[in-house]
Amino acid sequence: MSDIIHLLPDSVANQIAAGEVIQRPASVIKELVENAIDAGAKNIQIIINDAGKTCMQVIDDGKGMSEIDARLAFERHATSKINKATDLFALRTMGFRGEALASIAAVAQVELLTKTDNEELGTRVFISGSKYEGQEAVATNTGSHFIIKNLFYNIPARRRFLKTDATELSKILNEFERIALVNPEVSFSLFSNETELFNLPETQIRQRIIHLFGKKLNQELLSVDVDTTLIKISGYVAKPEASRKRGAHQFFFVNGRYMHHPYFYKAVMEAYEELIPVGDQISYFLYFDVDPATIDVNIHPTKTEIKFENEQAIWQIIAAGVKETLGKFNEVPSIDFDTEGMPDIPAFDDTEPVAIPQVHVNTDFNPFQANGGGGSSAPSSYQRKEIDWEPLYAGLERGSKVNTPPPADFTMSNLVESGVVESKASPSLYEEQESKNYEKGSTLLQFKGRYILTSVKSGLMIIDQHRAHIRVLYDKFIDQIKQKKGSAQGVLFPEIIDLPASQAAVLESIKEDFAAVGFELTNLGGGSYAINGIPEGIEGLDPVDLVLKMLETEMEKGGDVKEEVQSILSLTLAKSAAIVYGQVLSSEEMSSLVDALFACVSPNYTPDGLSVLSTIMDEEIDKRFER
């Protein structure tokens, strides 16, 4: 039998390693900027074109590299950070494995210009797909200048899996924020398609946070300072009243490195228990300084997950430190003994005789006599009074308007006007198939404020009212986007929403779709937007929360095409505006909803694949009553 095991070529091995280290353009920016910081750079400039898919540049004023180092840096496991295995337990640098440049060069076209301070000429190196293409002397500034072009040009499958430019730019900005927050002594500038997004001068940590996320955050932060033999914690946490449903800025840093740690997140939230609503998030920026020998940063290729030796003890320290901060700044609720309007309690006087309380009873009281007693001596206050109970039952008739009203657009007439239901619409394929079962005008019953029941020829149909309304509203909103006919309703007092640069970049890219749904947004500059108009039918909902929810959904899913972005916006808005479980509906409202549902092309399922209706067949019902 012939041998079947062989060594992979270096180019293939590098591409495999690149799959772990370089996942998207943001990974390239992270690795190059961290290398620049390790090189002692004090000024770093980042230039991005087409969200990094076309070109990325990172320019620094660090120590630079010699001619030999510039060539050797692109070899696998070539590094200046460690020399022996024991160095892994005393790491203070961002990178150390020597995989970043080799992985980048394996999946992109790379050009490097670099020069040390004691050299007159620098070096230019060209590498494409791990293939060395040339090297020459060149006049350049001290430091390094990386130019990365056509990422994943030699792996088309990987390139196709990249998200939209807005999503990829958002990922880059997220990585940029993490690095900038932990290096306030370094000045940064970032340009996207020749537009300056950030220009951060050298400053202190608190000012760096404000420069990144807005001045409003300055009024919400409380400083944390804990110093123990096990760990030193510094940074800031937000006040309880600054909690929000989503979009909180949450950052852990360990020895100058960003870290994702769900266990420590629970420690922070433990301190806010019963201080913020359930489900709310709180912003925090916490910096840990620990002995490098007590942590392992090499358990994940991107080094964002770190293992601690004393996790449980550190958990206790974090929770206690945050609680101490909240108490120190008087940000916890206290009992206020307000005596205004309260009766004065007399002081005890031991000279006064103590009298036993006496109970006075009317022995002549008889509740079955009209005058309340056995004789004319019964007090007049005991006279029975005739009470008219009828007003208490007012409004309890079937279909009364006392019930919780549905959304404003939840009537048949409005559905017809909005275009969701046509007065003489041709039946959909599903309606034609179900016409034998469901008949318009059938009796509808509501069950537990959640389901709508109706009798059909084949059995009993059960409709989920919340999901049915999602289906109806989704079709309405997606139609408005595609036809650009979304109607906006102006607001008397515009809401102001402040967005970090990562979310503002996404909003600008899909602003037209927001307008098509019915949101009127005005850019006020600096990441602030005014919400001047909202879609009709979502009155009572928080427009700021809706915009944030749609932005975050788009950033998480990152549609590859415009249609998917439109679908995400429509579905998020439909879920927020749909009637809730427990809402009581009248017969007319149930009929309007069911008729609108069966006018949809796909009434069986919500856009995200959840069942809307189910039918219990006659045979199954009969079996339950067999002897």
From TrEMBL:
SUPFAM superfamilies: ATPase domain of HSP90 chaperone/DNA topoisomerase II/histidine kinase, DNA mismatch repair protein MutL, Ribosomal protein S5 domain 2-like. Transmembrane segments: none annotated. One of its GO terms (molecular function) is mismatched DNA binding. Keywords: DNA damage, DNA repair. InterPro entries: DNA_mismatch_repair_CS, DNA_mismatch_repair_MutL, DNA_mismatch_S5_2-like, HATPase_C_sf, MutL/Mlh/PMS, MutL/Mlh/Pms-like, MutL_C, MutL_C_dimsub. CDD domains: HATPase_MutL-MLH-PMS-like, MutL_Trans. Residues 443-585 form the MutL C-terminal dimerisation domain. The keyword DNA damage applies. This protein is involved in the repair of mismatches in DNA. It is required for dam-dependent methyl-directed DNA mismatch repair. May act as a 'molecular matchmaker', a protein that promotes the formation of a stable complex between two or more DNA-binding proteins in an ATP-dependent manner without itself being part of a final effector complex. NCBIfam families: mutl (TIGR00585). This is DNA mismatch repair protein MutL. The lineage of its organism: Bacteria, Pseudomonadati, Bacteroidota, Bacteroidia, Bacteroidales.
